[in-house]
Write a structure and sequence with these properties.
Length: about 270
């Protein structure tokens, strides 16, 4: 399964949960990915991904991170730079706190020395699990830098990092099919996979916020229309009158009223809760 195919499957399972009131069981997730043979670590990352989308995964609780100084997923460059400073006034206070804690954890990642540079790529080609974990932890800081660069108000830096971490772990596991070029070229391809995952998340969240903003605008238009008609007619107004005024169907008008928290009555509405 390529990273692109996996992203598509993630979108499919999110769509599935929307039909189930944003709730899914761990067993249903395992069944969904059964043919992809994900290991437990990968499944846990999928569970965390779903939770980041405000989806309840029954029975799953994210384990607290061990105080080892190295998280199990993430990103830095192939030279192993760590302990990057957080830009002043970056994001919200909550994001600042998260980044401080996260960077403290990854500061313990040992940089890549010259001898290891010569052997890491060879070990990766031989499917060495320790080499894959090493490459993943070496990319921790790069993922943070990328999230800082790409963050928008609609998406928290924590969500971006988690999204990229998920993509990174899966892409590293697929390196058997991509092991050409130098270690730097492999690193750059993995980082590009992470960037694309972040971009997809940002576009999805922008779409959600655009829809939400439009809903708020429609509610305000409805309330304004009701007030105008009440003053003009000197009485409660009927649903069909509001619909005609706004040039929408009665069904659309009723839906907007429900969004506004209004009770839709046959005899009319006064626009007050």
């Amino acid at each position: 399964m390529t990273p692109e195919e996996f992203q598509k499957k993630l979108q499919e399972i999110v769509a599935l949960t929307e039909k189930q009131n944003q709730i899914i069981s761990q067993e249903d997730v395992r069944t969904f990915f059964e043919k992809d043979h994900l290991n437990q670590e990968q499944l846990d990352l999928v569970f965390e991904f779903l939770q980041s989308r405000h989806i309840i995964v029954r029975g799953f609780h994210k384990a607290p991170k061990k105080n080892t100084g190295v998280p199990e997923t993430a990103g830095d460059n192939s030279e192993g730079s760590t302990g990057e400073a957080i830009p002043e006034k970056f994001g919200t206070e909550q994001e600042q706190h998260y980044l401080e804690m996260y960077l403290d954890e990854i500061a313990a990642v040992r940089p890549l020395d010259e001898e290891e540079k010569q052997t890491l790529l060879e070990k990766l080609r031989s499917k060495d699990p320790a080499a894959r974990r090493r490459l993943t932890e070496l990319m921790l800081s790069d993922i943070v830098k990328l999230a800082e660069q790409m963050r928008i108000p609609e998406v928290s830096v924590q969500d971006l990092i988690q999204e990229a971490n998920l993509q990174l772990v899966l892409a590293v596991d697929m390196l058997d099919y991509r092991m050409t070029g130098s270690l730097k070229e492999v690193h750059d391809r993995l980082l590009e996979d992470a960037r694309q995952a972040m971009e997809t998340m940002i576009e999805e969240q922008r779409d959600v916020h655009t829809r939400d903003r439009r809903m708020v605008e429609k509610v305000e238009e409805m309330k304004d229309a009701i007030n105008v008609l009440k003053k003009k007619l000197g009485r409660k107004v009927y649903l069909d009158e509001v619909a005609d005024y706004l040039e929408i169907t009665e069904e659309e008008a009723a839906d907007i009223l429900r969004l506004a928290g209004e009770e839709v009555k046959d005899e009319g509405t006064d626009g007050e809760k």
